[in-house]
Amino acid sequence: MNTDPIVETSPNVTYGLDVVISCNISEPQSPITGHMWKKGDKILTSDKEPSEYTTYKIGEVNGDSSGVYECIFETNPPVSGTVYVTVKPHVTAYKKSEHGNEGDTGVLICKCNSYPPVSQWTWYKIKSDVNEAIINGTEKFIIKSSGNKAELRIASLDIEKDPGEYICNATNELGTSGAVVGLRVRSRLAALWPFLGIVAEVLILVTIIFIYEKRRKPDEVLDDDDGGSAPLKSNPPNHKDKNVRQRNAN
Fold first, then answer.
1. For the Ig-like domain, which residue ranges apply (predicted)?
2. Does 232 have pLDDT greater than 70?
3. What's the sign of the alpha-carbon dihedral 201, 204, 206, 212?
4. Which residues fall within 8 angstroms of residue 118, CB to CB, at 6 or more apart?
């Protein structure tokens, strides 16, 4: 009577450096032709060794390396085992500082890439060094979360009340951690300043050209008058006076 092969795995991992996880198979139903380690759909390593024991080394246990690891023995049929590398949430802000215009809807986003998945998201606003919980579903705030991503929407941004620092907290079975997101609210007129600056520059340039042209035209008119006037006519010689002087002399 054939018995199903048994795969024994190393204990689940929650912390450490240069951590080695392993799998060991007993009573395989066919010869082992190799091994493979996978994390999700990604193949981490593979070999063609016939050994009943296989290992994989994790450099550092953190949010990026956490997840479900699968060891696969290449038999007929293949046999696998699972090792879980778990950590508390590793939360990061999509942007450390967000900007919004007065009256618009502000959106703050946090994400968590660690395993196990987040079971609860909570948001706070820091007021006078105190974390004030944000209530979801009010006219002002809407919280949307889907697994390892959370979004806080702030309706009708107020330039006086809404700027500041917000905290997004994520919780899973190993604990809670969070990240801080800053929010700045700009006046609606702020978006017009670049346009108004360009208009002002154009007006100044037009004024300078107008003044220059107005001062230049009188000078050109004077130059044209001087250059176009006819030369003065000299009086013809008076022959009559000359004849009178000649008679008197005789």
1. 5-86, 89-186
2. no
3. negative
4. 89, 112, 145, 147, 148, 150, 170, 171, 172
Alpha-carbon distance of 13 to 86, in angstroms, equals 6
Beta-strand relationship, 175-186 and 97-101? parallel
pLDDT tens, residue by residue, 102-134:
999 999 999 999 999 999 999 999 999 899 999
Tokens of 236: 């013809």
206-217 pLDDT, tens digit per residue, is: 888 878 777 776
Q: Which region, left, alpha or beta, applies to residue 218 given φ > 0 means left and ψ of -120 to 50 means alpha?
A: alpha
Tell me the C-alpha distance between 164 and 147, whole Å: 26
Q: How far is CA 166 from CA 3, 108, 120, 161, 234, in A?
A: 57, 9, 17, 13, 98
**Average pLDDT of every residue of the chain:** 86
pTM: 0.69
Q: What is the largest CA-CA distance in the chain?
A: 176
Residue 39 and residue 21 in contact, taking contact as beta carbons nearer than 8 Å: no
